[in-house]
Specification:
The structure holds two protein chains of two kinds. Chain A is an alpha/beta fold. Chain A has two domains: 161 residues, Aspartate Aminotransferase, domain 1; 252 residues, Aspartate Aminotransferase, domain 2. Chain A has a seven-stranded mixed beta sheet with strand order 4-10-9-8-7-5-6, sandwiched between helices. In chain A, strands 13-14-17-16 form a four-stranded antiparallel beta sheet, with helices on one face. Chain A is globular. The N terminus of chain A is likely disordered. The model of chain B has no long low-confidence stretch (mean pLDDT 87). Chain B is globular. Chain B is an alpha+beta fold. Helix content of chain B is 46%, strand content 14%. Chain B has one domain: Alpha-Beta Complex (Sufe protein. Chain: A). The chains are: A alpha/beta, B alpha+beta. At the A-B interface, helix 13 of A face helix 2 and helix 3 of B.
Chain lengths: 423, 144
């Protein structure tokens, strides 16, 4: 057994309840990298998480041993590829506690999921004079598709405001929803502020007024257990690559009753049951929404990522990441001129900040020289930062299961060094 | 006094940077240059003269004096400003034809090429294009 294979077989089962971050780090080969001759300190998991050996090997194995097109194959390899492809769908169904695999649609990622719903469901239910509600803290991917839909339909888009602390102001929500409200779409965890929104309560309010709700779970799935039945959300979408899986594969969950009534998003192979010169007859769910050869390899390799999260357990993940976040917050608050952006009491592993007199771009550049990967800028939430907070961007450190207290300490030291150079 | 050629200024900068033995002193120097970049006149710090990078913004003006092009620029990010200061030191005060022919190889040689990567979206790459476009206009050539 090679070292790599050993590292691929994940955590020691007997150790299931203890969380050893070094053991976890060993599963992620990229964490051994050096950048500018310094050990890589990867603090950009909110943009994309790193990949464990199990995912990387699954991708290799797929192309080495399984590759063939899925569905309708009459030969063994094709059946095996189909089985592996569908196994991930079933895994995802369990993972988010959906009732049926027909409610699990493969998409490219969260952006694709939102676009699908806006272009099909939104297109069918939103008409001139109607309105759609989102929030001021949406990522552009859950903002622009709705803005464009409303523009096309001559409908209104309304934004639930965000307060100084980074929480949604929900007092006015009941009044904001009216008889012309056709949809409410919002983010579960803000990628910029870290705020965990009370989506269950919001869904309840919307449903009491007959308004369907879509959840952008891109930033929550890596940190929080999602149960679509308990939440009672109508749609929910997330990306594989933000939860230790491959890029280019994501999930759209939708309640069957809505998916059934929605027209297809794209047309072509796979999504039809029969085609005549006079026209097509569409396939059943979920294939109706999966036109063309799907991203088989990444779907297959997404399964071990979910298994890793399940094996570590959300309780361990939350405990570890929360300790990183509270330590980082406490240490950061001691830096002169710092302002933490996003101070909700209910926050996931994201830490955005600005330092008086230091442009985020300069801060990010100097941190990069010290081996630290953070993101700087608007984080695809330009209206939130520019129009709500009046900022030219922030520096954002975000944590994953593999980050350590030592890395947070190093970040703090480096932020101080960079500040001394810049201010 | 004989004026320096554009290439001579580039070589001078490469020499200066060869004295730094670590990234920190190099960046400290760039930051220092940035802090001392002559600030663009307030009336020019407008949308008209703004070059938008996604993360940092750059303002640029140019005027012709005695056949030579003089640039002024500003940015909200100080490292960007420092590199602008170097670009201005090399290009400003030269004839448009010389500016158009400059390959600005010094940026690579002093290890700052990453800042010109479009991925950094700091407005610098766009700024060099704008500087050369000004030179084209004044050289009487058509702008791309």
């Amino acid at each position: 057994m090679s070292t790599d294979d050993k590292r691929e077989t994940i955590l020691d089962e007997s150790n299931k309840n203890s969380f050893d971050v070094n053991e976890i780090r060993n599963l992620f080969p990229i964490l051994d990298l050096h950048v500018h001759d310094k050990p890589l300190v990867y603090l950009d998991s909110a943009a994309t998480t790193q990949k464990p050996f199990s995912v990387i090997r699954a991708l290799e194995r797929y192309y080495e041993q399984l590759n063939s097109n899925v569905h309708r194959a009459i030969y063994t390899l094709g059946e095996e590829a189909t089985a592996a492809f569908e196994e991930t769908r079933e895994k995802v169904r369990q993972f988010i506690n959906a009732e049926k695999t027909s409610e699990i649609i493969y998409v490219k990622g969260t952006t694709d999921g939102v676009n699908l719903v806006a272009s099909t469901f939104g297109e069918s239910v939103v008409n001139s004079g109607d309105n759609v509600i989102i929030t001021q803290m949406e990522h552009h991917s859950n903002m622009v598709p709705w803005q464009m839909l409303c523009k096309r339909k001559n409908a209104e888009i309304k934004y639930i405001p965000v307060d100084e602390k980074g929480d949604l102001v929900l007092d006015g929500l009941e009044d904001m929803i009216n008889e012309r409200t056709r949809m409410l779409s919002l983010v579960h965890v803000s990628n910029t502020l870290g705020t965990i929104n009370p989506i269950k309560k919001i869904i309840e309010i919307a449903h009491s007024r007959g308004v369907p709700v879509m959840i952008d779970a891109a930033q929550s799935v890596p940190h929080l257990k999602i149960d679509v039945v308990d939440l009672d959300c109508d749609f929910l979408t997330f990306s594989g690559h933000k939860v230790y899986g491959p890029t280019g594969i994501g999930i759209l969950y939708g309640k069957e009753k809505f998916l059934e009534m929605m027209p297809p998003y794209q047309f072509g192979g796979e999504m039809i049951i029969e085609v005549k010169f006079s026209g097509p007859k569409f396939n059943e769910l979920p294939y109706k929404f999966e036109a063309g050869t799907p991203n088989i390899a990444d779907a297959v390799a997404f399964k071990p990522a979910i298994e890793l999260v399940e094996q570590i357990g959300y309780k361990n993940i939350a405990d570890h990441e929360n300790s990183l976040l509270s330590f980082a917050t406490e240490m950061m608050e001691g830096i002169d001129g710092i302002r933490i952006i996003g101070n909700s009491d209910n926050k996931a592993a994201v830490m955005s900040f600005v330092i008086e007199g230091a442009h985020p771009y300069d801060m990010g550049t100097l941190l990069d020289q010290m081996g630290i990967a953070v993101r700087t800028g608007f984080h695809c939430t330009q209206p939130l930062l520019e129009e709500v907070y009046g900022l030219p961007g922030t520096v954002r450190a975000s944590f994953g299961i593999y980050n350590t207290i030592d890395e947070v300490n190093y970040l703090i030291d480096c932020v101080k060094r960079a500040r001394n150079m810049l201010v | 006094m004989q004026e320096k050629t554009l290439r001579e200024t580039e070589d001078e900068i490469i020499d200066e940077f060869s004295l730094f033995d670590d990234w920190m002193s190099k960046y400290e120097y760039i930051i220092e240059l940035g802090k001392h970049l002559p600030i663009i006149d307030a009336e020019h710090k407008t949308e008209e003269f703004k070059i938008k990078g996604c993360q940092s913004q750059v303002w640029l003006t140019a005027e012709m004096k005695d056949g030579k092009l003089l640039y002024k620029a500003e940015s909200d990010a100080v490292i960007t400003k420092g590199i602008i200061a170097l670009l201005i030191r090399v290009l400003s005060g030269h004839k448009p034809e010389e500016i158009l022919n400059a390959d600005l190889g010094f940026i690579d040689k002093i290890g700052m090429h990453e800042h010109l990567s479009p991925n950094r979206s700091n407005g610098l790459t766009a700024m060099i294009n704008y500087m050369k476009n000004y030179a084209k206009i004044y050289a009487g050539q058509s702008v791309q």
